[in-house]
């Protein structure tokens, strides 16, 4: 939730309104669950990962220099790793 306090639910509300809480979280909000008025958990959206579909999924995204496998480059990398 940007710029505001997270919405707070007690455990009973969280049990009975779980679907509604998860919808809020899916839309980027954070929700706090409390017991006897004391916050005990925070439900936050998960960061989604990029889905790749098979070979070539990064085509035109990654570019390699012409000398990526030159002896000089390999030597420089070996020095960086102490080899």
Structure notes:
- This protein has 83 residues and is of the alpha+beta class.
- It has a domain at 7-43: YefM-like domain (YefM-like fold, 3-Layer(aba) Sandwich).
- It contains three helices and three strands, in the order E-H-H-E-E-H.
- The protein has helices spanning 11-16, 18-26, 71-80, and strands at residues 7-10, 31-35, 38-43.
- A three-stranded mixed sheet has the order 1-2-3.
- Strand 2 and strand 3 (38-43) form a beta hairpin.
- It is elongated and about 65 Å long.
- 2% of the residues are buried.
- The mean pLDDT is 87.
For the terminal residues, how far apart are their CA atoms? 48 Å
Global shape: elongated
- How do the strands line up in the largest sheet? 1-2-3
CATH topology of the domain at 7-43: YefM-like fold
Biggest sheet descriptor: 3 strands, mixed
Radius of gyration: 24 Å
- Classified in CATH, the superfamily of the domain at 7-43 is YefM-like domain
Mean pLDDT, rounded to whole units? 87
Number of strands: 3
**Share in β-strands:** 15-25%
Structure at a glance:
This protein has 83 residues and is an alpha+beta fold. The protein is built from three helices and three strands, in the order βααββα. It has a domain of 37 residues: YefM-like domain (YefM-like fold, 3-Layer(aba) Sandwich).
